[in-house]
Each structure stands twice: as C-alpha cells, then as structure tokens.
Write a structure and sequence with these properties.
Largest interface: A-B, 32 and 32 residues
Distance between the termini of chain A: 12 Å
Order of helices and strands of chain A: EHEHHEHEHEEH
CATH topology of chain A: Rossmann fold
Number of helices of chain A: 6
Strand content of chain A: 15-25%
Structural class of chain A: alpha/beta
Oligomer: homotetramer
Number of domains of chain A: 1
Chain lengths: 188, 188, 188, 188
C-alpha cells in the first residue's frame, strides 16, 4: 500500500506523561509505510455547540479538524482518569465530531493503548473510549488489546521504555495495528 | 434534617441548552429543605496534573473545588456526546478529584438525569457517568432512572418544561432523589 | 465474493420473541451471497470450565462450537435484560470462547441489532455486547447502529415487521452489514 | 442493628473456583451481626419468560426467588468471562428480577469483588455487573472497590487465601461493606 498517515493522540497533558512515553515507544515500532504525527489536543477549548452554530469556531478547532481529516488512521494512547476517559481526549473526539454531518473521524481505522501507573491497565479508559468510537465510526482493532500496567517501573529516567517484555508486547500490538490499517485502507 | 445544599451540574455549555432547561424544571420540584446552586463548569481549563504538581492550580480550579466541597449532594443533568459523557462534565469530575487525596466528591449522594433531542434518552452518557462515580465515591441514586428523550418537543419557546407527563416523571425522580439525600446524610 | 454463511443469534428464548421477529425481517433483506442459519443457543448448559477440563463437554457444546466454527460471520439480535445482555446470549459467547485457545468467534465479522418493547432501544444490551466482542476478536460493524424501540407497535399479529420506516432502517443496516462482511472476508 | 442475612453469589461453577476461595475468605471477616449463606445459582435454567407467562416457573426458580427475597443484602464474588459477567451470574440476576413487578433484589445493599487469574482484576466483570444493579435497584458500595488479580498466587494448595496483604485488603473491604449494609438497613 502507499504510505499512510497515522495520528497519535495522547490523553494526558502532563510534561512527564507516561502515556507519551509509551506512545513514543509505539511509533518506534511503526513499519516504513506508516508515517506518524503527534496531534496536539491540549489547546482545544471545551466543546460548546454555540461556536459552530454561530459559525465562529476557535481557530484551534479548525486546525485540529483539518489535521484529523488529513489522517488515514488513529492511535490513541491514554491514561485513565477516575475509571474513564480523560476529559482532554474526550474533548478532542467531540470537537472532531462536529459540526453535525462533518465527523472527521468517520470510517478510518484506529487502535487503543491504555496506560496506568497502577495495576489495572487503565481498563476503564480503554473500554469507555471504545463506545464513542462506535458512533464516530472509527474501525477499531480488537485484538490484541494493549493494557500497560505499572508503567513507571518500565521506563528509564529519560522516560524511555526499557522493559523488554513490554517492548515485545508493544511491537506485537503495532504489527497487528499496521495490518489492520492495511485491511481497512485496502477496502476503501 | 437541616437544609442541604445541592449542586447542579449541567453537561452542556450551549446558550439554549436543553439540559439546563430540564435542570431548571428539576429544581422547581425540590422540597424546601434542599437548597440548590448551579455550579459553573465551563471555565475550568482542561485538567493537567502539572498545575497541581507545580502548586499553581488555576484560580477557577480553586473556586470550583471549594464550591463542591461545600455541597451536601450533586445533581448531574447532561446530554450525551458521541455515546458518552461530554468533555466539559468529565473535566469537572477530574478537576474535583485532584490533587490526589483531596477528592471533593467523596462520600456524598448524587443523582443523574440524561437528556437527548433523539430517542435513546442519552443512555450512553447516563451510564458512562456512573463509572467514575464509583471511583469518586459518589453514592448514586439507582431508581428511578431519569432518561429524557425528544426533549425539544417537551419545552415551550422559552425553554420551559411544559409536557405534563414529563413533569410528573421528573417530580417523582426528584422526590426519590430528595429521600436518597436524606438517607445518606442521616447516615453520616 | 463467494457465498458467506452468516449465523443468526437471537438473545431471547420466548416463543413470541420480538427479537426473533426482527431477526426474520433482517434476513429477508440479505443479499443473495449471504446465506443465513438460525443458531440454537437455548439448550446450552450454563458454562462450567470443569466440562472442558474433564474432557467431557456436553454434546450440545460440541454441536454449537462446530456450527459457529463453520460460519463466516455473525448477526446478533437481542433484547436487553436488566440493562445488559441476556444470560442466554452471554452463555453462547462463553461456550464458543472455550476451551482456552479454541475461540470459534475469532477474526470474523459481526453486527448487532438491539430490540426493546420500551423507548431506549436496548442500548444497554447493544453496548455491553460489544465489550466481549473485543476479547473474542469479533470485528464489529460500527455504523449504522441498530436500535429498535417500541417493537410491539411495529409488528402485525403474525409477528411480521410491517412498519415501513423500520423496514427501510433495517434494510440500510443489512446493506452496511453485508458490505462489512465483504470487507473483512476479502482481507483474509 | 439486628442480625442481617447476606447472600453470597459466586460467579463460577468450577469445582476449584478461585472466586469461591475468595468468597470464603471474605465471609471469614464478617462481623458477628452479618450472617451469610452461599446461594446456589448453578441449577437455574436459562431464563425464558414463557416460564413465568405460563405460570409454571421451574422449581429451582421458586426456591431461588424465595431465598433472595429473604436476604438483607448481597455480596457478589465473580470472575470475568470474555471481559464481562459470567452467564451463570447474569442468569441469576435475570431470574430474580422476574416476573415483572416482583424484583427480589429491590432496595437492598450490595457489594462486588472481582477475581482474576490474570493482571487486570476482572475490571470488566466488576463494572458490567454494576449496570444491571441500577435497574434492579441494588444499592452498591462504591468504595473501596475490590479487584483481586493473579489469584492463584495468593492461595495455598487447599484454596485458602494466605497472602497477607490481600487478607488485609479484603478485611478492609468487608469492614466498609458491613458499614454500608448498616447504613442502608437503618434507613429502611
């Protein structure tokens, strides 16, 4: 296939974000035909439909919507906040879904990696994130799932993923994700 | 019981928000011993843990956290965005849950009303909202549930709830919610 | 593509099951290259891992597992029981997932139609059913979703779907489902 | 308070069920005023509304419904099957919820412990189980949550919970559960 542009969406704004560390490791395993770009979601004002109804969306919305529309697929790497999706990531989904009839996520392949400093792999975020994807028509990779637990213990002091078994696990996930992007892209 | 202060949280920022209309109808059914105050959640920056780690949370966070800490219970009235919780409401939950160990939602009673212009009563928002409440230890009213469908047809041109059967349904919900606030408050 | 065999799984055992009525309407819209067969799930004993560990699964398990393994895709038509999946349908998923390493659902396309006599389209069943599909690696159609509300009013006295707008809605769903089966099948 | 009768519901039928081991450890921490009884859910035929409509429910349904109606609270201890509730446990919920208007779970306190041989604490079962509880009006303990991971490593060869930190964790959970039963019972 021709090269595909994959947007990376990190669900945490923290400077030392564990999810960003894992995202950086993930893209290091991308095959040559998958290009990646980290998409900034931190400067999008909380979604308010008045913006669109008034025909004056914030400039950051327009930049974001164009950036997403230009992508061929999505990789979401996210922590869990209070057993669900961080607001910053849900906001990005909502901004990209509107105005009505202009859902920029529509029909493209996606994958989810959830990341936790604790023991439960951010399962709650991982699966809550899947429900809006049904409505947004993002075609999600089902298997393998990717839950990263106790993430702090897997990184070195520079935030690089050094745990070998997690590196293998992540590489396998990216292999399946790449194949899934290919499957969905070829079908269109 | 002595008077209880109930915070009303509306999950939409739109000027003509249907959820706010329903919230206003709901509080009109409050018994005398329940005071209410609408809590502003629209000006809270997207949660970033650096704010708290640096010891410099936005002023709006501090105002919000104090306001919530002062409440005796919560009523959430929300639309569904893309089959889940609007980011603005999830953000409010996240801001109130932090910094770690200072969860201002902890141990108080809550209720949920979900509101939709369509036919499915915003079920997806209603139930996704329940999952963070487990972690936040908000003690939720289970029955009756409150799903409002086809909301535009229930309001007059001023946004007032005029549909009689929905008014009865909402009054019954508020009666049960009031009893629940009493149960939980008496136990503490 | 060559003909594909689609299994129809109805989540209710009731003689006059509304879900079975909707399933029968759905298959009437199948294109020629989709064959269908209703798969019996009502006589599967509640899953107990001892059956497999002892090497003595009930005969009905073996029949069921072979039947599912022989399919090219799945259509689930289900009511909601207590805001979630009926046990009879969850049991079928569990039986087909085992013994470990022999998941007969693996890698095939699927679709979900949820059916309710009430107003909320059995949303809770529809979306709870999606979570096991992640683990089972059933590749689910995302859009359109299919929620059927107030089903009794859509059928005639013989249980036939006669409501025209629902017939169109269901036909559109089956068109998308057929296309999805084709996409996934071609990729394998 | 006077003594309360708590039903223990184990979501696995396996002879060597890990969940039953954890349930046995849990009841060993019950205070004197909580009596417990393990409720058999393994011989309930898959729910079929015809049984009730015909006025001929299986004898096991009648025994079960009377047993649950006689309880003052519920403790559910369950594995996860395919990221959701085992069918055997969902079936018990469904049987107890019917016939319409005779929900024997209604208005009583409950708690959930989820148990996994893997690393994610059966989060998917724990939270999926909470959704029917809303409809059934079981008043659930929110905090602490109880997720038991890697359960095989916590038990001795007789299936007794010997891991000290898990024993403490479970005892704390039971203390909070007991207090919750007291709160809800006193309110009625």
């Amino acid at each position: 296939m021709s090269n595909k542009k994959i947007g990376i969406f990190v669900g945490s704004l923290r400077r030392g974000s564990f999810s960003r560390s894992i995202a950086q490791a993930a893209v290091s395993f991308f095959p040559a035909e998958l290009e990646f770009r980290f998409i900034n979601i931190g400067d999008l004002p909380l979604y308010n439909q008045d913006f669109d109804d008034d025909g004056k969306p914030p400039a950051s919305y327009e930049v974001f919507r164009h950036a997403v529309a230009d992508l061929d697929g999505f990789l979401f790497v996210t922590p869990e906040y209070n057993r669900s999706i961080p607001a910053v990531l849900k906001n990005a989904l909502d901004v990209g879904s509107r105005p009505y009839g202009h859902n920029v996520w529509n029909g493209k392949p996606g994958g989810i990696i959830s990341v936790s400093p604790g023991g439960l792999g951010a399962f709650g975020a991982n699966h809550h994130l899947r429900q809006p994807m049904v409505f947004l028509n993002v075609l999600l990779l089902q298997q393998p799932e990717a839950y990263i637990s106790k993430v702090a213990s897997l990184l070195n002091e520079k935030g690089e993923l050094v745990d070998e078994s997690t590196r293998t696990y992540l590489k396998n996930f990216i292999d399946a994700f790449s194949e899934w992007v290919r499957t969905i892209s070829d079908a269109h």
